[in-house]
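Subject: Glutamate-1-semialdehyde 2,1-aminomutase structure
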Amino acid sequence: MEPVKRFKVIGTVTSLPQTSISDTLFERAKKVIPGGVNSPVRAFRAVGGSPRFIERAEGAYLIDKDGHALIDYIGSWGPMILGHNHPAVREAISEALAGGTSFGAPNEREVELAELVTRLTKTEKVRFVSSGTEATMSALRLARGVTGRDLIVKFRGNYHGHADGLLVEAGSGLLTNAEHLGAGAPSSAGVPAAYAALTLVVEYNDPEGLDALMQLRGHEIAAVIFEPVVGNAGVLIPTPEFRAALHRVKSHGALLIADEVMTGFRLSLRGACGLLGLQSDLTCWGKIIGGGLPVGAYGGRAELMDFVSPQGPVYQAGTLSGNPLAMAAGLATLRELERDEGLYVRLETYTSALADGLRAAAGEAGVPLQVNQIGSMLTAFFGDGEVSRFAHAAQADTAAFAAWFRGLLERGVYWAPSQFESIFVSGAHGERELESTLSAARAAFALSRTA
Ligand SMILES: *Cc1c(COP(=O)(O)O)cnc(C)c1O
């Protein structure tokens, strides 16, 4: 952590931190990039204020352009499970870089990463793409190609990337920018109603609703796609009854697609499905699998994956798929996760201590708070009562959350800038970060109460 000490750590500020360089950059950005950002939630619309521009990142910290070191709970929205700028990952990328950046022809690292992913996740074949969006989009095309059926089922508030047919009652930034949400319709302008009509939506953690839909239309359904632990409505954990209902969809000839883009290698080496005993037909990955470079993947049994072109009739391609730098970053990250056996236990220990600390601090401040936590994923919902469905999450007090978020950021803690996101802990977060976070959280709860 040595390099970070050269920067201001703003642990106990009483006046607002100086952010003039970030503010100036944001003004410039807004002139040439829609909303000033290349992905919506980064713009801080839901929490107010303007986003920090990041100069560099190290371990558990982001260092912004004005020189503030911020304890980072976003981890690039999931990939940075080892912490930022991890030496093993950086060295693997440098080594690959020396050999050229892209070939558009097969390379050995693709084979190595495919072997590693299939071994760790007990999958037979995997195809690499460049984002999570491509992974889910391609897995659904495959499911439609295999079954010859058109309909798909997704769950309310689950997010599977931004392909047209999946922007229906979707989570993540679609919840954050809720002014664009139509009732029961596509979550985005520009999605034809005819596409949206092919996507049926059920409430997450509603086994009866899922069973009823499958009884009615199961024979028309190509696939049921789900987040095995939801991160994109905030964290929602599937009940045993819901998990059983998910397995039952297979009896209707529909494929079960686990979207592990967020949870894969995050909750265990076998993802959320491995942790919770879920068996899907196809799995999608992203985020951690690329170690901070753009990678996604989808995989499953060979009999299904062999429908993919050039082996089979389902077309899917990519100019930069299997890129050597991206493969190197993914390989180094997954090898480190496999080597460091205690990592997942350390992540759980830190994150459950964070959850307990937040509950206690909120209690002392008289702020109603529901913390959902599993492994290194956590959401602090501002409100009363259990949060297991999207409808519960939607009742959270987003104004209180926003005030709390700003209080944290002013004290050097970079939380996810939306009530409807998971935060992520990395292997670089330790005692010092936990203590600073909880002391910032205590001060920020006092602010949220008056919001
Ligand atoms: C992030 C995410 C995606 C989309 O991945 P991108 O790389 O942003 O396209 C899809 N599904 C889930 C569950 C995600 O968390």
